[in-house]
Amino acid sequence: MATGKIEDRSIRLGRRLTLFRDYATVLLVENNWDQEYIVRQWNVAGNHLGDHVVRNCHFLSITSRCRICHVIRECKSYGCRHLLCARCVTGYLEENINAGALNLVCPVQHCEKMMCPAVFKSDVSIAVRNLFQRNLNRSFLLAHPDEEFSYITAAYDFCLGKKWYILAFVVLVVLFFKGPRASMNLNLNFIL
Hints:
The two termini are 24 Å apart. The protein contains 8 helices and 3 strands. The protein is mainly α. The longest helix is centred in the last third of the chain and has 28 residues. The chain has 2 domains: 142 residues, no CATH class; 35 residues, no CATH class. Helix 1 crosses helix 2.
């Protein structure tokens, strides 16, 4: 599955460069998933690979003044030093992810640091989170056409975004074929 390969490569690159795994993923996406190129360039003096990546991230969540709306709310850091409220960030993230963006920069003007996916994923809907993962998988597979296409992976990616529809369909089918008494005896423990 592409997701597992993405995680493996991100972890491996993160260890080689002593970076947070999500920032390793950012570098991989920006550089067409070419890990060896990134490592070679990283060790060259004056390289620009790390310009948009924060090496020593501090992920905070405190009550503070949001750098965008300037209202005092529960704010958190998304990788850079800016504190932003979820209300301001959610719309920005969902709009960009729906447009297909994979590398999202801090929305504060003149800050070009990449936002950490592990942190911002909790601020978007499940559908947008799944779309982000599918776009990441698609990017990886486009960069590595030699990787096998797996119908199981494609089915998994499809179902990931449609799981509640599929569950509702299964319940309706069971109710239809078992009749009205099935709803009393229906045991959904296998789902939980």
